[in-house]
Structures are given as structure tokens and as C-alpha cells.
């Protein structure tokens, strides 16, 4: 059995490695506009496809690309088209928050949610849930709807204080895990949690990561372990490994 001490040591070493890669990336900044444009277009597409696919959207990667270009895909629901379009808009909103150096708040979270559910579920868009929910297949049970406002307030208080002492990657992972554990909305919590995680990474100068739908089982297992056992290491490792494509493309 791996001891907690060894796990913490390995995690610290991983953070140091990623910090070194980020330093190399910073040396190359500002990046060539053509590289930035290519990476951004690819990121928006893959992030949108994978995040929606994790939640059950059946658009393929190429179908998502077509949908984002404003073309209707035959045999696919209107909801799935809106989910793709909305997610791209949410990414653009996150980018604007990073550019303005905005601090995470309940207002920004609700604004993101309003974008995610636009034309999908307008009656619940931007509003905390008023019913109790279960996370399918998970051991963890989210708080009751009555507890959601106070838990979200506590989440933001933690973010503004204790969270700022964590390594940026660790903070981003905790933001994702703790937010989705509260499950404050009736729908869209997973997509919002991944947007918030990347908001934190981007604010700290790290590239955003895409959690792939192929790793959905490991992703769900890691989340449940963090929620029920307080063990964030499997989830953090999953996120760390998701950085790899960017270092290769950027040549660092």
C-alpha cells in the first residue's frame, strides 16, 4: 500500500515538473499568432466535444465541428446542437474572465450556467436547484437543495482564502471536485466544473486541459473517491496527465 506521505511526495514532484514545463512555455510567450489560433480552435472543439460527450451528448467530434460552424447535423436533436453552441460560448466567457483577471464568484458561476442551459432549459438556467438530486452510479450524495446556497457561499469563502495557498493545479482540481460535489444545479454541473477548473488553470498561466470521454469511468471513480474518502490524488493525477498534448504541440 502506498503511504499518504509517499503520495504527497509524488504529487509535489509532479507539480514541480509541470511548473518547469510552464516556465519553458513562458519563455516562448508571446506565442506566434498562427500557433495560438490553431491551438485555440482545436481546444474549443475538443473541449466542447469531450465535455458534452461525458454528459451523454451523441455528437461526434466532426459533428460537433459542423454544429459549431452553424450547420445542422441530420438525425441529431436540437438540444445536442444547442449544447455544443452553448459550450463554445461558455469557453469564450471563461476566456474573457481570465483576460479581466476576474475572481471566482457565485455570480460568475451562475452566469456560466445560464450560458450552458440557454435554449436547453431556460427555466433553470442560472438558478440553483430547488429539488434534491442523486449522482447516477456514485456513492457520494450531494447536499439537499435547502443546503445548496449555504454550501456555495462556503465554497466561495474557501476559494478566496484557503484555496489561494494551494498550488494552482491542486487548487483547480479542488475547485472542480468540490463544486461538482455540491451539485448546485439541476443540470450542467459537470460541464460547469470543467469550465471552472480550466478557468483556474488559465488564470495561473497553465494551458487548459481536456478530460477525454474515453476516460469517463476513471474520471467518475476519481471524483467519487475524492468525495467519499477525501482522496484527491487520483483525480489530480488524471488532470496532470491531460496536460501532455500541449507540451508536445508547443515544443516544451
From TrEMBL:
<feature type="domain" description="Fido">
    <location>
        <begin position="104"/>
        <end position="241"/>
    </location>
</feature>
<protein>
    <submittedName>
        <fullName>Cell filamentation protein Fic</fullName>
    </submittedName>
</protein>
<dbReference type="InterPro" id="IPR036597">
    <property type="entry name" value="Fido-like_dom_sf"/>
</dbReference>
<feature type="site" description="Important for autoinhibition of adenylyltransferase activity">
    <location>
        <position position="55"/>
    </location>
</feature>
<feature type="binding site">
    <location>
        <begin position="219"/>
        <end position="220"/>
    </location>
    <ligand>
        <name>ATP</name>
    </ligand>
</feature>
<feature type="binding site">
    <location>
        <begin position="187"/>
        <end position="194"/>
    </location>
    <ligand>
        <name>ATP</name>
    </ligand>
</feature>
<dbReference type="InterPro" id="IPR040198">
    <property type="entry name" value="Fido_containing"/>
</dbReference>
<feature type="active site">
    <location>
        <position position="183"/>
    </location>
</feature>
<dbReference type="GO" id="GO:0005524">
    <property type="term" value="F:ATP binding"/>
</dbReference>
<keyword id="KW-0547">Nucleotide-binding</keyword>
<dbReference type="Pfam" id="PF02661">
    <property type="entry name" value="Fic"/>
</dbReference>
<keyword id="KW-0067">ATP-binding</keyword>
<dbReference type="InterPro" id="IPR003812">
    <property type="entry name" value="Fido"/>
</dbReference>
Amino acid at each position: 500500500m502506498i503511504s499518504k506521505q509517499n503520495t504527497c511526495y509524488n504529487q509535489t514532484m509532479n507539480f514541480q515538473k509541470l511548473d518547469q514545463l510552464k516556465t519553458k512555455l513562458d519563455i516562448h510567450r508571446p506565442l506566434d499568432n498562427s500557433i495560438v489560433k490553431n491551438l485555440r480552435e482545436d481546444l474549443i472543439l475538443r473541449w466542447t466535444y469531450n465535455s458534452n460527450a461525458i454528459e451523454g451528448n451523441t455528437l461526434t467530434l466532426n459533428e460537433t465541428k459542423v454544429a459549431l460552424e452553424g450547420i445542422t447535423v441530420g438525425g441529431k436533436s436540437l438540444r445536442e446542437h444547442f449544447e455544443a453552441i452553448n459550450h463554445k460560448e461558455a469557453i469564450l466567457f471563461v476566456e474573457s474572465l481570465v483576460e479581466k483577471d476576474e475572481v471566482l464568484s457565485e455570480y460568475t458561476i451562475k452566469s456560466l450556467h445560464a450560458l450552458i442551459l440557454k435554449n436547453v432549459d431556460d427555466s433553470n438556467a442560472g438558478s440553483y436547484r430547488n429539488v434534491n438530486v442523486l449522482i447516477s452510479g456514485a456513492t457520494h450524495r450531494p447536499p439537499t437543495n435547502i443546503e445548496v446556497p449555504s454550501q456555495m457561499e462556503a465554497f466561495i469563502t474557501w476559494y478566496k482564502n484557503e484555496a489561494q495557498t494551494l498550488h494552482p493545479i491542486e487548487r483547480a482540481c479542488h475547485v472542480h471536485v468540490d463544486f461538482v460535489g455540491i451539485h448546485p444545479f439541476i443540470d450542467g454541473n459537470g460541464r460547469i466544473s470543467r469550465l471552472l477548473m480550466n478557468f483556474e488553470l488559465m488564470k495561473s498561466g497553465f494551458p487548459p486541459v481536456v478530460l477525454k470521454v474515453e476516460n469517463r469511468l476513471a474520471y467518475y471513480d476519481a471524483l467519487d473517491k475524492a468525495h467519499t474518502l477525501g482522496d484527491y490524488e487520483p483525480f489530480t493525477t488524471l488532470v496532470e496527465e491531460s496536460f501532455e498534448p500541449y507540451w508536445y504541440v508547443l515544443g516544451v
